[in-house]
Specification:
The complex is a heterodimer of chains A (about 325) and B (about 575).
Chain A: E1 9-14, H1 19-29, E2 34-39, H2 45-48, E3 54-57, H3 63-79, E4 84-88, E5 99-101, H4 113-130, E6 135-140, E7 142-144, H5 149-160, E8 177-179, H6 180-192, E9 200-203, H7 212-223, H8 233-256, H9 269-276, E10 279-281, H10 284-290, H11 297-320
Helix pairs in contact in A: 1-6, 3-4, 5-7, 7-11
Chain B: E1 2-4, E2 12-21, H1 25-33, E3 41-44, H2 53-57, E4 62-63, E5 90-91, H3 114-118, H4 121-128, H5 137-140, E6 157-158, E7 162-165, H6 171-180, E8 185-189, E9 192-198, E10 205-211, E11 217-227, H7 231-240, E12 264-273, E13 285-286, E14 292-295, E15 297-299, H8 301-307, E16 312-317, H9 329-336, H10 343-346, H11 357-369, H12 371-386, E17 403-410, E18 419-426, E19 432-437, H13 442-462, E20 465-468, H14 476-483, E21 517-519, H15 534-555, H16 561-565, E22 573-574, H17 575-581
Parallel strand pairs in B: 1-8, 2-3, 2-11, 2-22, 3-8, 4-19, 11-21
Antiparallel strand pairs in B: 5-7, 6-15, 7-14, 9-10, 10-11, 12-17, 12-20, 13-14, 15-16, 16-17, 18-19
Helix pairs in contact in B: 1-6, 1-15, 4-15, 9-11, 9-12, 11-12
The chains are: A alpha/beta (about 325), B alpha/beta (about 575).
Chain lengths: ~325, ~575
């Protein structure tokens, strides 16, 4: 273990180009205690680990990558144990559960490969703890905030194209969000918290949770996607069952020629299922043990909308100037 | 969970914390509010998930004057969702003045304040899917709504008040999934509550007796009972439950079924507006949340007090459809197609004039000469009404001339003689049918007459045109009689009062003298106001749900077991015992 800057502990942030790893690195870099090292090439993991006092595993997206990186991290950590690993998991581990779920809730059958990988990765981390390592698992809800592709950019595009709106019974699910900066704060608190080895923490804003319909309406108003359209059940089913597979196929083909951003967003079954799921992620444990305070929803929406509008203006200007319209995630 | 009462074990006694009788706007709203409270809720819905002739026929009854009141199986739906399966979706809160005791309106005044109800309107708006709780024309739509007539600022009316429209939301369809997936809520379909079984001392309801049309019978025992049917069925069930309370439950002072109100409503007058067409707006604006909103011409409180009349609103309306003189193709097309329109919506298309060949030809000629207008309307109706999930609320057709009529919706004064009682005949379940004797009073005629005259004066003073009565409308009472009691607005039959001599329920909607029976219905409104009742029904239901929840929490430790022991219940077994015997 070593420290790059005197007095500061090096925190290895393993990411995959997710927006949380960048934001976390920014948050760490302004703290007096930590110095982040952002690692995006996992092949370097074994070499990087001995230099780090602590590790945050933010790898997401592809199930295979999540498992491979987590396995490699645990293996390497057994040889060169960092002071603590904070492993970022997901609320996806709760599957199709409804009602209030906390960290003690028994996990249900995973809904897809991603959730299965998340559950298996948690098992790997808990095994590492059982073997004497120090690790903490964070299960964040939907990560919201500037630069969030799935929960800001995608939703904004869908609202503006009127393919998303007031979903009626399909939007009755509970809106579980956490601001990316709040999540970064939870992670940083987890790095230094005492007596939390092997603990799991849900990370979810603790304000009274609206339904997804209420959130979509408020967000649409904030970005000017009004009047909001009521989406019929028939249309939504058509989007999920007919249009989404076509769009995903088209996106795959387009990505091979480097033009994935020209394909409209798909309303996938997982996404629509989330909007329908009446699950409330209870984050009382994180509030009590880590002492986190969450950003109010109005502030989150307003900030995200402001970022979205500014980003659109920038892209429009860039497009007018003949530059690429590639969206960063 | 949702299941059928037909498959419930015969003779069982289902136990619940709260038994809700009626699966319409009020019943479903209460069930939704109690979803995550941990309370065991049983909701009894008399119908199934679709209209069924046999279920619907249970609503049939007698009407004293068929020209004034619709048949009792119209405007009411005996199925899950109740009458929200056919409602128009108009959401309007009551006004503060509606809650006040007004010396010129006998029996006016609610025992609770406007603010006591108003705090629940935002949640009611959400449940009704009528968007934000903003009923001001300047706030409802960014930048304000378009004026009805530009620069028309009448002295005795305000055009700033707004009505918002639900999808219209069919509560049964919309909230079915939420209720079905609940572990603590049990919805029983085809469950006709035929009797409320009271304790020996009459102070509590011990059980709701349930029968199905195929002969099943069982009971639901609960700590709290909520009668959440419409205002007519409330009377039926209270009066028919007369084994302990000889005059019927809650009827010690003979008030159940009295003061039956609707709204005095119809179409009146001919308003010619001498302004450019783009200075006039009779249609809807859309709020940010996608909800259709529309301005009304509402009589100010000050004018009501000064002229000692009731509350009333007017809306700019197209000319009367049956009269072909409007020369508007779309209106004539509606008239010609009226047989294809449901009874509830076709009623306004009735005409007392003979349907002569000449009348038909005039309408056909209107369609022919205004084919573009008629086809444009049909396309708009198909796209924005038939196919849209949030439906364009009503027919809005701009007349070819600036000649409009006025739609009005007026308060009906509480009238003891206007009543609902049990008839001699019974239905197939052995329940007495109802007999309705709806009456209006001279004060109701005066409200419409005076308000019309005030608006005439304001129109004239503002110099925007001319408002007059049609030749066949000189007698405004005849106009009122032409349209009769406004369909579906059944109000006041179990009114709220300060004590049992002036009301059936108290300010918490609890039946006087029966500690655990509540009523969630427009039956409890002491006065009707001018507003359509559904939004207030839902607001009161939300309020009641919260009251019941707090009562349940308080009562957990203080239930008197002796109270139950005094009861002589019919032989109902617990569900598991009944299952074993079966």
């Amino acid at each position: 273990m070593s420290t790059g800057t005197p007095g500061k502990q090096t925190v290895l942030v393993i990411g995959g180009g997710e927006f949380i790893d960048t934001r976390l690195a920014q948050a760490l870099s302004v703290s007096a205690l930590y110095e982040p090292v952002l690692l995006r090439t996992h092949a370097d993991l074994r070499a990087a680990l001995p230099k780090a006092a602590m590790v945050v595993n933010c790898v997401a997206r592809r199930p295979r990558t999540i498992l491979a990186v987590t396995q490699a991290l645990c293996d390497a950590a057994r040889r060169n144990p960092p002071r603590r690993i904070v492993h970022l998991s997901s609320m996806a581990v709760y599957g199709a559960a409804t009602g209030v779920v906390d960290e003690a809730t028994e996990l249900q059958a995973p809904l897809n490969d991603y959730a299965r990988a998340r559950i298996e990765a948690e098992s790997l981390v808990l095994k590492y703890v059982a073997d004497g390592g120090d690790a903490v698992i964070i299960r964040p809800s939907c990560m919201f905030g500037p630069e969030s592709e799935p929960w800001v950019s995608r939703i904004a595009r869908l609202l503006l194209s009127r393919r998303l709106g007031d979903l009626g019974p399909f939007g009755d699910g509970t809106c579980n969000l956490i601001h990316v900066d709040d999540l970064a704060a939870v992670i940083i608190l987890a790095l230094s918290a005492a007596n939390v080895t092997g603990e799991i923490f849900n990370a979810n804003a603790d304000w009274p949770r609206p339904t997804w319909n209420e959130f979509l309406i408020r967000f649409a108003q904030a970005i000017g996607a009004t009047p909001i359209r009521r989406i019929s059940a028939l249309r939504l089913r058509g989007e999920v069952k007919l249009v989404a597979p076509l769009l995903r196929g088209a996106a795959l083909a387009a990505s091979r020629v480097g033009a994935s951003n020209v394909v409209p967003d798909a309303l996938t079954p997982t996404f629509v299922g989330t909007l329908q799921q009446a699950i409330t992620i209870d984050s009382a444990k994180a509030s009590a043990r880590l002492g986190i305070h969450y950003k109010p929803l109005d502030e989150m929406i307003s900030e995200a909308a402001q970022w979205w509008r500014a980003q659109r203006v920038t892209r429009t200007h860039a497009a007018q100037a003949g530059f690429s319209d590639k969206t960063s995630s | 969970m949702i299941s059928s009462a037909r498959s419930t074990v015969r003779g069982a006694a289902i136990e619940a914390d709260v038994c809700i009788i009626g699966g319409g706007a009020a019943g479903i709203s209460i069930a939704l509010e109690l979803l995550n409270t941990g309370l065991r809720v049983v909701l009894l819905e008399a119908g199934g998930t679709a209209e069924d002739n046999a279920d619907q026929a249970l609503y049939q009854g007698e009407v004293a004057d068929a020209s004034l009141h619709s048949p009792l199986d119209k405007y009411r739906q005996r199925r899950f969702g109740g009458s929200t399966t056919i409602w128009g979706g108009r959401c309007v809160p009551l006004d503060p003045i509606d809650f006040q005791a007004r010396d010129w309106i006998p029996n006016s005044g609610w025992p609770i304040s406007y603010h006591e109800v108003a705090q629940y309107y935002p949640r009611a708006n959400m449940i009704c899917e009528a968007g934000s709780c903003s009923y001001d024309a300047e706030e409802s739509v960014p930048g304000g709504m378009r004026p009805i007539v530009r620069d028309f600022d009448p002295a005795d009316f305000t055009t700033a008040s707004v009505e918002r429209f639900s999808c219209p939301t069919d509560f049964g369809r919309r909230y079915r999934q939420q209720l079905a997936s609940s572990a603590t809520t049990r919805v029983l379909l085809h469950a006709n509550c035929t009797r409320l079984i009271a304790s020996a001392d009459g102070a509590r309801i011990e059980m709701a007796e349930v029968r199905t049309l195929d002969g099943n019978c069982f009971g639901v025992s609960a700590t709290q009972f909520v009668l959440a049917t419409g205002a007519l069925e409330v009377v039926r069930l209270l009066l028919a439950s007369n084994d302990v309370h000889a005059a019927g439950v809650g009827n010690a002072h003979g008030l159940v079924g009295r003061y039956y109100m609707s709204h005095i409503a119809g179409t009146i007058g001919s308003l010619r507006i001498d302004r450019p067409a783009d200075h006039i707006w009779q249609g809807y604006d859309r709020a940010d949340d996608g909800v259709y909103c529309r301005r009304r011409i509402a009589l100010r409180d000050s004018a009501q007090r000064r002229d000692r009349i009731g509350n009333i609103v007017f809306r700019l309306h197209h000319p009367r459809i049956p009269n072909p003189r409007h020369r508007t193709g779309a209106l004539s097309a509606i008239f010609l197609a009226r047989r294809m329109i449901s009874y509830e919506y076709a009623k306004r298309l009735e005409t007392h004039e003979p349907l002569t060949a000449r009348l038909w030809l005039q309408h056909v000629a209107n369609v022919g000469t205004d084919a573009l207008g008629a086809s444009g309307f049909l396309w708009h109706w198909l796209r924005d009404r038939v196919l849209a999930e949030r439906k364009f609320p009503t027919v809005i057709i701009r007349p070819r001339t600036n000649l409009f009529s006025l739609d009005f919706n007026a308060e009906q004064v509480p009238n003891w003689y206007s009543h609902v009682r049990l008839a001699d005949r019974v239905d197939p379940l052995g329940m007495p049918r109802l007999r309705v004797d709806w009456r209006y009073a001279e004060a109701d005629v005066r409200t419409v007459t005076s308000a019309f005259q005030l608006l005439q004066r304001d129109v004239s003073t503002a110099g925007i045109g001319d408002l007059s009565l049609e030749p066949d409308e000189a007698d405004i009472e005849a106009v009122i009689r032409r349209d009769g009691a406004y369909g579906g607005h059944h109000i006041g039959t179990a009114r709220m009062g300060l004590d049992p001599t002036e009301g059936v329920v108290d300010g918490n909607c609890r039946v006087f003298g029966v500690n655990n029976l509540y009523i969630a219905s427009s039956a409890v409104f002491p006065t009707s106001g001018q507003a359509n009742p559904t939004l207030t029904i839902v607001a009161l239901a939300v309020r009641l749900a919260r009251h019941i929840h707090s009562e349940e929490q308080r009562a957990i430790s203080v239930i008197d077991p002796a109270c139950r022991m005094q009861t002589q219940l019919p032989v109902f077994l617990t569900e598991s015992m009944a299952e074993q015997q079966a």
